[in-house]
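Quick note —
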Amino acid sequence: MSQNYKFAQHTKCEYFPCHKGVDESAFNCLFCYCPLYMLKDECGGNFVMNNGIKDCSGCTKPHRPGGYEFVMGKIGLVIERGSDF
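Predicted structure written out below.
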């Protein structure tokens, strides 16, 4: 069974690659905007807070191999938190 839906790459994007430290041939752009951002400190990524703003520029988890599984493993929490609004 094909699993092509787990990977997308946009090498013509002016920001590609937007994060350093991931092999460009394996860089996954699928989660260009990380759906885990709203989880704040529960996202599991490598972020820092700058003047009260979450800075994810040092996080490569959604863009590495296995990133799809990482994000989808936490998407239930995103859905749960979204229903709180």
